[in-house]
Amino acid sequence: MSYVRPHYRRDDTYVKGHNRRTRPRTAQPRTAPRRAIPRPRPVPAGPTTYVRPHYRSDGTRVRGHHRSISPRTIAVVAGTGGGGLLLFLLLLALASGPGASSKAPAGTTPSHAASVPATHHP
User: Fold this and answer.
1) What pairs with residue 50 in β-bridges?
2) CA 110 to chain centroid
3) What is the pTM of this model?
4) CA 37 to CA 30: how far, in whole Å?
5) Is residue 114 part of a domain?
6) What range defines the domain where residue 68 resides?
7) What is the pLDDT along the chain (122 residues), one digit of tens a residue?
8) Could you tell me if residue 85 is inside a domain?
9) Structural contact between residues 19 and 3, judged by C-beta atoms closer than 8 angstroms
10) How far apart, in whole angstroms, are the C-alpha atoms of residue 64 and residue 49?
11) What's residue 27's pLDDT?
């Protein structure tokens, strides 16, 4: 309810200060609550995913809903996108064997003199 200050109307009639209802009264008496008529929901084409209810950063509440999945997202999940590259690198690392991580260049062997610490002779 909001308060209306006393004032004069355009036709010069005086209106006392009063509390005004926020909603106007309905013309017909309320005997039973009205039932909401369900609206037909649009059916998304293609695959969908469920988005859980959450709050946005500005405080707006988002109800849970189904969202369409784009073909690009399906391709990434299926492995033709970035996931395939990760699998390839993993297989390459496994196939190269345990010697691939040594510091010596391929095809060379360290000499015995380089691996033995030098002794100082006076």
Assistant:
1) 66
2) 54
3) 0.31
4) 18
5) no
6) 47-93
7) 688 899 998 888 899 999 887 776 666 666 667 777 887 777 767 788 889 999 999 999 999 988 888 877 777 776 655 556 677 777 778 877 665 555 555 566 655 555 555 566 65
8) yes
9) yes
10) 11
11) 61
What pLDDT shows up at residue 82?
Answer: 55
pLDDT, position 46: 78
Residue 8, classed as helix, strand or coil, is strand
Cβ-contact 68, 47 below 8 angstroms: yes
The pLDDT of residue 65:
87
Residue position matching structure tokens 């209802």: 21
Q: How many domains does the chain have?
A: 1
Alpha helices, DSSP H only, in 4-81? 71-78
Sign for the CA dihedral angle at 75, 81, 86, 92 comes to: positive
Q: Token digits for 111? A: 């000499």
Whether 66 maps to a domain, the answer reads yes
Interacting residues of 66 by C-beta distance below 8 A, sequence separation 6+: 44, 48, 49, 50, 51
Cβ-contact 24, 41 below 8 angstroms: no
Decide if 75 is inside a domain. yes
Q: Give the C-alpha separation, 116 to 72, whole Å.
A: 57
